[in-house]
Design goal:
Blueprint: H1 17-28, H2 33-37, E1 43-46, E2 63-76, E3 82-83, E4 96-104, E5 109-114, H3 118-124, E6 130-135, E7 137-140, E8 143-147, E9 150-152, E10 166-169, H4 174-178, H5 183-197, H6 207-212, H7 218-226, H8 231-262, H9 274-281, H10 289-302, E11 309-314, H11 320-333, E12 337-341, H12 345-359, E13 366-369, H13 375-387, E14 392-395, E15 409-415, H14 422-429, E16 439-444, H15 450-456, E17 461-465, E18 475-481, H16 485-497, E19 501-506, H17 513-530, E20 538-541, H18 547-558, E21 564-568, E22 580-585, H19 593-600, E23 610-616, H20 622-633, H21 637-648, H22 674-690, H23 700-706
Parallel strand pairs: 5-8, 11-16, 11-17, 12-14, 12-15, 13-14, 15-16, 18-23, 19-21, 19-22, 20-21, 22-23
Antiparallel strand pairs: 1-10, 2-3, 2-4, 2-6, 4-5, 6-9, 7-8
Helix pairs in contact: 7-8, 8-22, 9-11, 10-11
Length: 720
């Protein structure tokens, strides 16, 4: 889009200038005329229809009236009342708080109310002049009014290049509005931008693709996205621009995959080996069909001669660790080492404990390396990795330190991989001795809707464990408010009397961390009061503790020495205490669906019936209420993830306001445009399977577009 005049600095567009240009850049990121053309309306309204005042209803949507100004009243601050400007005297506008403008169109009278921009409006709206007023009607003391309507002179058809009935509403901010950059002005600026640059804008998609997919040309799409000729033209424009955006997103992601898949450079692991068979034959229970299917997919990758890059998605408790161990044993059975990387010490310790049990009798030596490993332990582990005597190493970021040297690394398993950046992973790849990158298995317990997984992990093959192991009982989810606190405490005492344990989780949302720690402290006080020592023991884990403190308290709870564990959401990832049967989530309305689901997955790991209690305030937003209802209605993580994405948008899956996408989308929505995404994906797939490097002349436009900065993906598999 940086062709011709679309690359022109926005300040030179008539009606902008340096001051407005700075503001448009700061508030909306608009620097060029092309940027403005890519600022698409987020909704549309019919602004050509004029409603007679007698037909206006206070509950109507946005309307437009054409009326004559009859009288203007200025109201002072406090009890000053009406200010009557004296002839020839200067008005002190800083003393005026409100301006009422009474207008009439012959069918009735209506009040226009202004709290801002009074000086400008007072100089404009003189009795006897006629204007168009556009806004949302309301009523005050039985009188119709419109607060801060947009005001324009009746339109002159010669002034604009469009004559359609539908006009776009553009994103805005309070600062823009205060600076006079109203919705109406944005419409005029976009019109000027189209007049200036549209003729220079070249097609970004090859002609064969435009025909094949039945797309309208780019110039038609840009004109009709801003000023639609009619509804049909608007739909065609939207489809074209959404398809293009999603196609380039998919091409950018899949190109990585195609280049890699054409490269036969991967460690071939043809055997399964005795170690795998011994572990498999001695598993405490049968694998589910889903686990077996995933292991077959992994096995095919590892013997193909190409590097495996696979994402393993599995709901909490679906048995991913089992699959990880069996995959690691395929590597050791072929004479290679495997490493399992976890994002936290707690999770690394837990993986290590589970893995040690599963490796009994296989003859494979395992070890753990974390930030808190003692110097002597480190030396021993470094030696074992270097001489090859350690077959499987579990660890945190400590595994990628420069002094960690592997003899023969063939497989890297990364758990909850969105916590690891590309540079960190690249460090691990360089640790292979044979110069060939290791196979990579990425695991996540965050259920990701298929459309989103295809995009966020477009360069990875996706496997899903969609069954829970036999014996896992459903967790009963209950919603309660503060009034039920005594009943909840009694229920917790009953469960503890039965020998069970209880998690109590407080939210830790970074914007209000101090406040959250205060709430946590108050919560601990009230729990200790309700569950005094003796006979009850309460352990506490939060982010401000040292690793040793956390480990001490976690171990006390895991070993059954504490009945209650009070924690911030640090326990979300990887705490496995089969004896814990109750999860109480305080201020549950402040968590996202995926987080709530992850926390709930910490109970129900044993054979006893388990419960998740969602404690909320009595006043909740509509969205929060919907989330809590969904949590009580289903345990299916993928269903919840789909809903979460619809409610929160793809960039907010983990409850933190961060953009999840490697490329920003201006018009397409992963939550709503799944069908277009699938089509764009198939199309990108077909293009790249025929021409992986886009060197064919017919794809030259695609190759040119993909070289632009916005498509250079630095971290294409990061979601948080």
């Amino acid at each position: 889009m940086d062709y011709g005049k679309s690359g022109m600095d926005i300040q030179f567009l008539p009606g902008v200038g340096p001051k407005r240009a700075m503001l448009l850049d700061k508030e909306l990121g608009i620097r060029t005329v092309g940027d403005l053309l890519h600022l698409y309306p987020f909704r549309y309204i019919d602004r050509t229809g004029i409603t007679p005042i007698r037909e206006v209803r206070s509950d109507a949507a946005y309307i437009q009236i054409q009326a004559e100004v009859r009288r203007v009243t200025l109201h002072g601050a406090g009890k000053a009342g009406i200010i009557d400007p004296e002839e020839g005297k200067e008005i002190k506008y800083n003393l005026i708080r409100r301006m009422s403008v009474w207008v009439s169109d012959g069918t009735g009278e209506m009040e226009m109310v202004f709290f801002k921009g009074i000086k400008w409006m007072h100089s404009r709206l003189k009795p006897g002049t006629t204007f168009l007023f556009f806004g949302k009607p309301s009523a005050f003391n039985g009188q119709l009014n419109m607060v801060h309507p947009e005001v324009d002179l009746p339109s002159n058809p010669e002034e604009t290049t469009w004559s359609g009935a539908i006009t776009g509403v553009y994103p805005s901010t309070e600062k823009l509005h205060n600076a006079g950059i109203t919705g109406r002005l944005m419409v005029k600026l976009v019109d000027k931008a189209l007049q200036t640059a549209l003729v220079d804008i070249r097609e970004t998609l090859p002609e064969y693709l435009v025909k094949e997919q039945g797309l309208v040309p780019l110039q038609f799409a840009l004109r009709n996205i801003h000023f639609p000729k009619d509804t049909a033209a608007l739909q065609k424009a939207q489809y074209r621009l959404k398809f293009e955006e999603l196609l380039f997103l998919q091409l950018a992601l899949l190109k990585q995959k195609y280049i890699r898949s054409r490269n036969e450079n991967g460690i071939r692991m043809p055997r399964v080996g005795e170690q795998f068979n011994h572990c498999y034959d001695n598993l405490p229970f049968d694998l589910t069909n889903a686990q077996k299917r995933v292991i077959r997919e992994i096995r095919d990758d590892m013997r193909s001669g190409r590097q495996m890059n696979r994402l393993l998605q599995g709901d909490v408790g679906s048995g991913k660790t089992m699959v990880a161990v069996l995959t690691a044993l395929i590597a050791t059975g072929n004479g290679y080492q495997a490493c399992i990387m976890a994002p936290t010490e707690v999770l690394a310790q837990q993986h290590y404990k589970n893995i040690q049990k599963l490796l009994e009798g296989t003859g494979v030596r395992s070890a753990i390396l974390t930030g808190s490993s003692k110097a002597a332990e480190r030396r021993e582990v470094h030696q074992g990795l270097e001489d090859g005597s350690i077959g499987i190493i579990v660890g945190t970021h400590a595994l990628i330190e420069d002094n960690v040297v592997f003899r023969n690394l063939g497989l890297a398993i990364i758990d909850e991989q969105h916590r690891f950046g590309v540079e960190q992973r690249a460090k691990l790849w360089r640790k292979t001795s044979c110069g060939v990158p290791p196979h990579v298995l990425v695991m996540t317990a965050t259920p990701i809707p298929r459309t989103l997984a295809m995009t966020l992990y477009g360069d990875l093959d996706v496997s899903v464990i969609d069954e829970l192991p036999p014996g896992r009982k459903p967790v009963q989810t209950i919603h309660a408010t503060e009034g039920k606190r005594p009943a909840l405490n009694n229920f917790m005492r009953e469960q503890i009397a039965l020998g069970r344990q209880v998690f109590v989780v407080y939210p830790l949302i970074y914007e209000s961390e101090k406040m959250d720690y205060k709430n946590l402290e108050k919560g601990i006080e009230s729990i200790v009061k309700a569950f005094p020592f003796p006979p009850y023991k309460t352990a506490v884990v939060h982010g401000k503790q040292t690793n040793d403190e956390k480990k001490f308290n976690m171990d006390a709870f895991a070993a059954g020495r504490a009945n209650i564990l009070v924690a911030t959401s640090v326990i979300e990832v990887g705490v496995d205490v089969p004896n814990a049967s109750v999860m109480v989530i305080e201020s549950a309305e402040r968590f996202g669906l995926s987080q709530l689901h992850q926390l709930r997955g910490r109970v129900g790991r044993g054979s006893e019936k388990s419960y998740c209690v969602l404690m909320t305030g009595t006043k909740m937003s509509k969205e929060s209420k919907h989330r809590i209802e969904l949590m009580c209605a289903t345990e299916n993580g993928f269903e919840l993830a789909e809903e979460d994405m619809k409610m929160r948008g793809p960039g907010d899956l983990e409850g933190t306001q961060q953009s999840g996408l490697p490329i920003s989308l201006n018009i397409a929505s992963l939550a709503k445009d799944g069908l277009i995404l699938n089509k764009a994906r198939e199309c990108a797939d077909a293009i790249l399977s025929a021409d992986p490097s886009l060197s064919d002349r017919k794809n030259s436009q695609l190759a040119t577009e993909l070289k632009k900065d916005k498509y250079i993906i630095k971290d294409y598999s990061k979601i948080s």
